[in-house]
Amino acid sequence: MTTWLPDLSRDNGPLYLELANRIQQDIESGSLPAGVKLPPQRNLAFDIGVTVGTVSRAYAVVRERGLVTGEVGRGTFVASRETGVPNGQLPITLRPPGGYHEEARADVIRLDSSAAFSEAGAAEIRPLLAELSRDGCDEMAGYVRGIEPDWRKAGAEWIALGCRWRPDEENVLPTSGAQGALISIIAGATNPGDRIACEALTFAGVPRSAQLIGRGAVSVAIDEKGILPESFETVCAQQHPRLLFLMPAVHTPLTVALSPERRRAIIEIARRYNVLIIEDHLYASVTPDPYEPIAALAPDITFHIGGLSKAVAAGLRAGWVATPAHMTARVWSAQKMLTGGSSYLLSDMAARMVNSGAAMDVRTRVREEIARRVTVMRTVFEGCDIKIRDHTPFAWLKLPEPWLSGTFKAAAYEEKVRIDDEDEFKAGRGDQRFHGVQVAFAAMAKDIETMEIGARRLRRLLDAGPAAYHSYN
Predict the structure, then answer these.
(1) CA atoms within 13 A of residue 96's CA, in its CB half-sphere
(2) CB 331 within 8 A of CB 185
(3) CB 114 within 8 A of CB 280
(4) For residue 450, which of 2, 193, 312, 412 sits 20 to 30 Å off, Cα-Cα?
C-alpha cells in the first residue's frame, strides 16, 4: 500500500472532485503507478482531514473514469493500461476483420452502412457540377474567406426538413459533413481536459474524435427509449461534462426517438449544470414525421447538425450546424484552424443541390428505396425481436439467448455478411450490455435483391443458434 498523500488547495470546486482530479494527475504523472493500492478510504480521510464520504465519492469518480479498479475485500488499485482506460478517455483501437479499417471481401454482402445510395444523386450532381465549374472557377481557385448567403440559406432550409423549427440563417455554418461539424464544435466549445457526455450506445465517432484533441468521454446510461435523465444528472454532478451529444430524432443504433418528456428533462438538467448540447439530426431528413428538435426548445445551448449524407450523397461531405448565437464565431474559427477552411467547390455544390430543389428530388427517391427495403426487412425478420422504423435505413436486432453481439457479428462474417455489433457504438467501458447488432441496409447493399440475400443469411443464423457456429480459434 502506498503512503501517498494528496496536496489539496481546496479552492477549485467540490472537495471530492478536487481529490479525484488530484488522483488522476498523480496517476498520469507516474506518482501513482499502475498496480499501486490507494490508501483505505477511512485512513486517507483521517490523514487529510475530510469525511469518509468525501473520499468515497472521489474514489467513485476515478473508478468511473477508468483510472482505478476496486476489488471487494482488497481495496482500490491504480489500473494498468491493459485493464483501465488512461485519462478517462477512450482508446483508439484497430477494428477486427470486417471492421471499418479493412475493406470487406468482394463476396461479402455489406449491411453496415446507412449512408445514401451512392448512385442516387448522380443525375442531379452532373449538371450542377458543370454549372459550378463554368460560373465559379475563380472562387474555387482561392481560399474561402467568408460564408456565402446562399450557403447559410441552404443549411437552414435543409435543417428545417423533418423538423418543426428553422434556424436563424446568421447562425448556420457550412461544414465538411456532420463529422466536420462535430469536431469543430468540440474544439470550439471546450478546452483540453474537458469531458463530453455520450449515451452508452451512440455514434462512436464522437468519443473517438474527442480523445484525438485531448478531451475525455463519459458514458450516460440508456434504456430502450433512449438516454436516462437521472443518469445524465449523476454524470453532470460527478464528472462535470461540458457537452452532451445526442441523436434524439433517430437514435443510432436503437432507432428510437427521444420522447418530449425526456427532451425537456435533459434540457432542464443541462441548464442547471451549464452543459451545452450537440443534437445530431441527420436521419430527420429521411424520416416521415416532423420532429420538434431540442434546438427549438433551447436554441441558446444547442448545436443542431444536419447534412446530406443520409438522404442525398455522403461523398459531397455536405453538412451544416446551427449554433447558439454566442458560439457561431468560435465554431467557424475552430473549423478553419482544424481543417484549413471550407472547400468552395463542396460548399457551393451542396448549396446548389438544396436551393435548386435537386436535393429534394434525390431525397424522395432515397426515401422510396428505403421504404421498399424496410418492407423486405420486416418480412425476413418476422417474429424476431427487431426494431425497424419507417424510412430509417437501419434496424436494431436484439439477439436471443445465448448469442453474444460480437459472436453473432463474427458468425455473420463467416456467412459473408458484414454488420456492426454493439461495441461499435459504445461510448466507453461500462456495465450495460445490450446483446444486439445493427443491420444497416443502404449504400453498401447495392440492390434490394442482394440486401435480401444478406438478411436471410442473418435470419438463418438466428434460427440455427450459436451451436451451429465455430470460430476455429
Answers:
(1) 11
(2) yes
(3) no
(4) 312
Residue 364, classed as helix, strand or coil, is: helix
Check if the beta carbon of residue 238 is closer than 8 Å to that of residue 19: no
DSSP state of 308: S
Q: Coil, strand, or helix at residue 244?
A: strand
* CB-based contact 156:172 (threshold 8 Å): yes
C-alpha span between 94 and 76 (Å, rounded): 30
Side-chain-facing half-sphere of 471: CA atoms under 13 Å: 7
DSSP letter string over 89-148? -PPP-PPPTTSTTSPPPTTSEE-EE-SPPTTTTHHHHHHHHHHHHHH-HHHHTS---S--
CA 213 vs CA 88, 93, 235, 238: distances in Å: 14, 16, 21, 22
Select from 65, 71, 60 the least CA-distant residue to 28. Answer: 65
For 222, phi and psi rounded to 5 degrees?
-135, 165
Residues 21-38: tens digit of each pLDDT: 888 888 888 888 888 888
Amino acid 374: pLDDT: 96
pTM above 0.70, yes or no: yes
Spacing of C-alpha 260 from chain mean position: 21
- Distance from C-alpha of 191 to C-alpha of 210, rounded to nearest angstrom: 11
In whole angstroms, give the CA distance from residue 92 to residue 208. Answer: 7
- Could you count the other beta carbons within 10 Å of the beta carbon of residue 427? 25
| β-bridge partners, 395 | 388, 439
Angle subtended by helix axes 122-135 and 344-355, to nearest 10: 120
Residue 332 C-alpha cell reads as 467557424
- Nearby residues of 130 by Cβ (< 8 Å), 6 or more positions away: none
Q: Which helix or strand (DSSP H or E) is residue 68 part of?
A: strand 68-71
Rounded to the nearest integer, the mean pLDDT of the chain is 86
% the chain with pLDDT above 90: 51
Q: Alpha-carbon distance 308 to 316, whole Å?
A: 8
Q: Fill in the DSSP letter of residue 250.
A: S
Q: Which amino acid is at 53?
A: G
What is the DSSP pairing of strand 68-71 with strand 75-78? antiparallel
